[in-house]
Amino acid sequence: MTETRINQRDKILAVAYTLLAIMSLLHAADIPTKPVRLAEAAARLEASLFWDPLTGAVTLSKNGHLVNFRAGEELVLFDYRELALLDAPIADAGGILVTTAFEARLEAFFNTLPPPVSYRVGAILIDPGHGGKDPGAIGKTTINGKMVTVAEKDVVLKVAKDVYERLSLVYPDKQILLTRTNDTYPSLEDRVEMANSVKLDAHEAILYISIHANSAFNKSSTGFEVWYLSPDYRRTVIDKGDSQSSDILPILNSMMEEEFTTESILIAKSIMEELDKKIGKQSPNRGIKEESWFVVRNAKMPSVLVELGFVSNPGEAGLLADDGYLQKCAAGIYNGLTVFISHFEGSRGFTTIQ
Ligand SMILES: [Zn+2]
Questions:
Q1: Which fold has domain 120-346?
Q2: Which listed residue, 28, 139, 159, 285, has the most CB atoms within 10 A of its CB?
């Protein structure tokens, strides 16, 4: 995210407020329509649906378009640039209910051309966790009758370098970067600083992928998981001193902030799915999680953290000590990133992220 992009948003929001005022008048004349399940509407529209039941935030995507709204709120944000007031979606035990008019509005929007200015991924920073004096999680396993120590810092460096090689080959026009290439220890602040100091063009974004391995007191814990930036961590995007419509500002604000979250969720989803294809038969898929990790929280960009598996489990430590298995992990992360990038860069393919 660049300053220019935020400034552009301010201008867009000024226009949006005017539109909002007009739409409030039109809205009064709306006739309530039949309720429909959002999940069914999304299926009919062949749009990808993501709903966070904790925050009530909903993202729908199709044809390079994104629609954001929240259960219980009338404001709907289209492609982060256009606002509308529609009947507030309702959350219940069965999911989210919208109206037929809401569905029709979504359909009309998805059928429009995607926004002309498309952002591209200019850089990907791959962050192998720990290193040097900090080994991260330590486990033991037996290979060919010999007891072997498995250190997180070594496992994640191998995978990170492999992901780096794969991305560098296929994206010579992007900056592919590593926070460390050896057994050294950049501090967490160093890593965040590295991420935030990468030079980007106006319409470029940077992705931050931190790679770790897990440890648990319970030695039977196994599996891989992907974490994304928690929506609890909010930036102030819109100036609060500004408007008469102060009651909607917090809602708008959080919707704009959620762009990073949305992108992070989409990256997390695609990495999770592609990792599952590669290692899902050998290690349980623990799903996508939401957290405000230090590394992820302070990087002002879409960020995810991948936990490859548990070195504290002797069986999984055995897998993580195997180069063939680590290549599969790298392939999964790489594939997930390419899936996300092709969507992010405006190809009409969002629908394949289900
Ligand atoms: Zn770690």
A1: Aminopeptidase (3.40.630)
A2: 159
Residue 156 Cα to ligand 1 middle (Å): 9
Query: What is the DSSP annotation of 174-227?
Result: SEEEES-SSS----HHHHHHHHHT----TTEEEEEEEEEEE--SSTT---EEEE
At the top level of CATH, the class of 31-110 is alpha beta
Q: What is the largest CA-CA distance in the chain?
A: 77
Residue 128 CA to ligand 1 center (angstroms) comes to 9
Q: How many CB atoms are located within 10 Å of the residue 95 CB? A: 17
3-state secondary structure of 16: helix
> How far away, in angstroms, is 329 Cα from ligand 1 center?
16
* Element housing 124 (H / E): strand 120-128
pLDDT tens for 211-255 read: 999 999 999 999 999 987 654 443 333 333 433 345 555 555 555
250: enclosing H helix or E strand: helix 249-279
pTM of the full structure: 0.66
**Where do the CATH 3.30.457.10 domains begin and end in the chain?**
31-110
